[in-house]
Amino acid sequence: MTLQIKTGYRLNVAMIVLNKNNKVLFCKRRNTENWQFPQGGVDEDENIESAMFRELNEEVGLEKNNVEIKAVSQNLIYYDIPKNIRSRVLGGKFKGQAQKYFLLKLISGDVDLNIENTPEFDKYSWVPFWYPLNQVVDFKKEAYRSALIELKDQINK
Fold this sequence. Notes:
Nucleoside Triphosphate Pyrophosphohydrolase; three-stranded antiparallel β-sheet; 3 helices
């Protein structure tokens, strides 16, 4: 599957992980007060699903056998990085990210995530489905809204 990405955007995967109570995994970026879903870039010539599983493991320590894919966003969901911080984000090479969202269900029971050894996050919480929409940084809000609205009906399927 070849995705057409608008010029200036980096291909990215984002994971909305549900636990048995349908709460979502929300993580605090290390050394900041910013919270977000696990996400990460897709390497050149990397399959999008493989990238998602790689990033899920790198960012929160979950393995492929810990989750099942419930749904994937139909289209890429874009967000722009504010101009005043672009030079510090993604090496200043991109104006934003083009994200493919994955809705995942934790199938291995309650997992104590080992994020202490990951570079990305230093805390996590299981929160109500819509909670992240009001907590994520402003420039990601519309992307989160689009993803949550699109994937909400797939939670109980």
